[in-house]
Amino acid sequence: MSPGSSKLVRLFLTGLLAAFPLITTALLIAFVVGIVIRWLGPSSAVGSVMAKMGLNIAGLEWVGYVVGLAIVILSLLFLGLLVEKGLQKGFSAISSASC
Fold first, then answer.
1. How many CB atoms lie within 10 A of CB 68?
2. In this predicted model, what pLDDT tens digit does every residue of 18-63 receive, in sequence order?
3. Which of 21, 68, 87, 90 is the most buried (most CB within 10 A)?
């Protein structure tokens, strides 16, 4: 094998190894999104509940689903904010007590 071709093989393998985590991540995200869509999509049991939640606001089923999904996401964000604020108070109390 000539020095030029061994460098090409090395560059190819380096690129392949660098791309592997990216490809694996993309496949994992696609897999998880597929599962989430099956569990929470408009045709699932949970999705139909979310559509009914938002159906009172909008007349179309898909708009109702999007509104219901937005309500769930905003509720989770608000819950996360409350938890973070509580944890920050706890951490500040611990750090001020130890100093």
1. 24
2. 888 888 998 999 999 888 878 877 777 777 777 676 655 556 667 7
3. 68
pTM of the model: 0.44
Q: What's CA 20's distance to the chain center, in Å? A: 20
Q: At what angle do helices 45-55 and 61-98 cross, to 10 degrees?
A: 100
Q: Which residue has the tokens 């001020």?
A: 96
